[in-house]
Design goal:
Elements lengths: L14 E5 L2 E4 H17 L7 E5 L4 H11 L4 E4 L6 H11 L3 E4 L1 H12 L6 E4 L9 E2 H5 L14 E5 L9 E3 L9 H15 L6 E4 L6 H12 L3 E4 L5 H11 L3 E4 L1 H8 L3 H6 L7 E4 L6 H11 L3 E7 L3 E6 L1 H6 L6 E2 L4 E5 L12 E6 L11 H7 E3 L2 E2 L3 E5 L5 E6 L4 E3 L2 E3 L1 H9 L4 E11 L3 E10 L6 H13 L10 E4 L13 H13 L4
Parallel strand pairs: 1-11, 3-4, 3-5, 4-8, 5-6, 6-7, 10-11, 10-12, 12-13, 13-14, 26-27
Antiparallel strand pairs: 1-2, 8-9, 14-15, 15-16, 17-18, 18-20, 18-21, 19-20, 21-22, 23-24, 25-26
Length: 517
Amino acid sequence: MAELLRDLAVDAGQPALRDAAGTVDWPGLDARVNRWIRLLRARGLRVGDTMAVVCGNRRETFEALLAAIHTGVTVVPVNWHLTASEIAYLLTDSDSRLVVTEPAYAAVVDEAVRACPGSIDRLVAGERDVGAAAAVEPLLAPLADDEPEDQVCGSTMLYTSGTTGMPKGVRNGLFRTGAPFGRVDRLLAYAGYTLAVPARGAVLLVGPWYHSAQLFFALLPLLRGSRLVLHERFDPQAFLAAVAEHRITACHLVPTQFVRLLRLDAGVRSVAVVSSLRTVWHGGGPCPVEVKRQMIEWWGPVVVEYYAATEAGVVTLIGAEDWLQHPGSVGRAVPPHKIVILGPDGSELPPGQPGRVFVHRAGKTFEYHNAPAETREAHLRPGVFTYGETGFLDDAGYLYLTGRARDLIISGGVNIHPAEVQAVLLSHPSVRDAAVTGEPDDEYGERVVAVVELDPQRLDPADGAQVLDEFCRRSLAGFKVPRRWRFVAELPRDGTGKLRHDVLRDLLRRETAGGRS
């Protein structure tokens, strides 16, 4: 048996993984993973090697991932929306020796591999070869499914989104190559009592697995014995149907998905069966206060917010009841972490005063793969690091984020936090989505720009600037109100809900070059 599945593989008939193609039970999952372990070894992978996975939310993705974790191999999850050149960069930077993909992405993977130096092996999910990728099923079929010898813990390396520069690889501390499997068991238990990761529950994955939060809030419950239901993408009505059908107890969502759920017809929401939910984690971006309040009113006190990043995991938590007492907060530090707010001179700031958010945890650190300068920039000193946000603590130690340090707009010498302006815009009933950024201004240095996705049935874009300007002035000082408005059919967000700042900047830059104001 695979070491981390040893206590679970005895549950014959109990579903472990379900995707669009069907369901596999725990003994079946264990057998598949054992074959995958042998397949990876047969393809020449050894302890310390790296492999990439360019697959959607499907059974084979988690089988390959679990096999690597039992083979001493590092897995690089790859965003399946990337171009060939972007994938080639990740393959080269990570020194991947193998890519696992599926038919839909095989062509772009082939192109990416051809652009890489050296030789990279390719496997494709399914029964048939696709291009240079060998089909997985015929290779798995003759392999033994009993317990492989010499199992060694592997790891994962996730790349940051790359929306503000070249992606940087980060090895997550949960799985360490060569570490005892007992260490993973202890961390799984910690995740249970700290993050409410369920054992023997039912978890729904509706976001892309390649994102760190989506991955670990799916993989950890699976390893604790919860059945995992995989959806290829998020659809609000399909989500509610799955929660009811599978009696889902936990899931991870992002704020944009909350908004889409709340915009369902009131009749649809009123009959939705969500009583099985016990924990709904959310993070990955600011959540408007009114949006979260409505979700708590609808689903009850199951919503748990965290502040975390790929670099070093979760550092704060706040449950629904605490949040109602501290609306807008992302919670207090999870021991043994400590949050410190530092000013421009590096001095610690008192409660209520915003500055750069640093995390202190003795003995814990991280590094960016092949990027020592960026690693140094993220650390004040060993054990004290930043995810790049700005914010403040209140008197009770609750953290409030105000934006990212690099996103700060300085107009006329005054600091403006885009997140504050964005939150006001998102509270308007006609605004589906909004992003706020800065652009050069001859008089003030920078000016505030809003890019807005409107509900055209509620507000005509031709009237949008005037209506939203007046709306913002009720809540914001005049210098914070956007001076330029751009209305789009859809904001450029990736599959995790994160804004693609690079695409947004290119859009605004092209307009400026074209003479628009």
